[in-house]
Amino acid sequence: MRRIAREAAEPLNPRASSDDCRTRVTEARIGSTPSSLRCFLERIIDFAGVFPPANLPVERAVDDYSRFRNSVDGWMLGRFVCPTAKLLAVEKCVCSSLGASTKWQIAVTTAGAPTVDEFLVALRTDLEAIASFQRRCESRVMIDTLELRVPQELVDLDHADSVCETIHRVSASLHSLAIADMTVYYEAPLGPRWLTSVSSVLSGISSYNAGLRSNPGVPSSRYAGFKLRCVDSGFSWIPSPEAVAFVISRARDLSVPLKATGGLHHPLRYFCQDVQMRKHGFINVFAASTFAYIRNLAPDRLQEILEDELPSSFAFERDTFTWHDLCASSKEIDGARDRQMTSFGSCSFVEPCDGLRSLGFLPD
User: Fold this and answer.
1) Beta carbons of 244 and 226 less than 8 angstroms apart
2) Residue 323: is its pLDDT beyond 50?
3) What are phi and psi of 291, to 5 degrees?
4) Do 123 and 170 touch, CB atoms closer than 8 A?
5) Is CATH 3.40.50.1220 the right assignment for the domain spanning 2-358?
6) Of the residues 149, 191, 221, 262, which has the maximum number of CB atoms within 10 A of its CB?
7) d(CA 219, CA 213)
8) What is the C-alpha separation between 33 and 316, in angstroms, rounded?
């Protein structure tokens, strides 16, 4: 039944580009890169250079993003990510310099708040700023993704119906400002009770999406998703592979799309000397998500994928991706990317690309 429900729903297709001038990459552009790897990595990295630890000035981040788009690795680049508070600075840099044939997609984050009422009041102010920005820059930039942190009050309540009600109130604000056609991802704060809060947030998102799916006229872009944070901003708390496997499997079961963020600079799981902790790898996370979706794997099997640090375990053939005895076709990878795990935010674009080359996944 879960597979039927997923297939009946429209794919989110977050990788579809709004830039008429930027077509799907050609074979000549990326050389001998296997089809399976292209499907796995296409538009996978949302560039968040203005966020820690990079903390780039907006002008530098915009310049870098523009340069990355036109680089040999530009096919892996997704959205530009920035907080609402920096939209004006982005406008000065982008809208005055982009050509008429170029249009960027932007994901916007907002500041959190401890209570639901404070969250909604602050969000309304942010949404008004977003709507104003869109009107002024609609020919150059499209904000199509919103990333919100669930208020601590909702986390403490641990009540899915309250989460669903809050999402409906967010949706009402979006509609009232005529900016409803964007995908909103909700994040549960990391901490000791993270798995408990994740369960209620995922269930609340699922209930909200179920209501939308009952109306065939609602575009898939309005479905809500969950933002999976793989390390907190201070690098003091990293969810275990077991916890990440639980989130991936639970999101699959509830047909909730995911995007990831936090510390995913390296392709594979590794021990980071700087923080003396093991960090997750983005190939691990997206491989687990892919096989969760197409093979309905149990959490313990997903955990094995997330813990694997050997490059030789992951193979990208011309039209097939394999991990040990599991395989996925390019078409299956596409489906998993569009409906299960869409992209990940990173303050660095160069580091993940260099990591892929150093491990032999990309040609030099």
Assistant:
1) no
2) yes
3) -75, -25
4) yes
5) no
6) 262
7) 9
8) 9
Q: Which of 271, 189, 272, 178 is nearest to 228 (CA)?
A: 189
pTM of the prediction?
Answer: 0.91
Structure confidence by residue, pLDDT tens digits, 199-229: 999 999 999 999 999 888 888 889 999 999 9
Locate the domains of the chain by residue range: 2-358
pLDDT at 18 over 60: no
Q: Are strands 141-149 and 183-187 parallel, antiparallel or unpaired?
A: parallel
Name the pLDDT band for 353 (thresholds 50, 70, 90): very high
The one-letter code for the residue type at 77 is L
User: Cβ distance 248 to 39 under 8 Å?
Assistant: no
Token representation of residue 226: 């969950």
Question: What is the spatial distance between Cα 290 and Cα 3, in angstroms, rounded to a whole number?
Answer: 14
d(CA 290, CA 117): 37
Mapped onto helix, strand or coil, the DSSP state of residue 103 is: coil
Neighbours of 10 (CB within 10 A): 14
> Which residue from 235, 127, 137 is spatially nearest to 182, judged by alpha carbons?
127
Task: Express each pLDDT in 113-132 by its tens digit.
Answer: 999 999 999 999 999 999 99
Give the count of beta carbons closer than 10 Å to the beta carbon of residue 161.
12
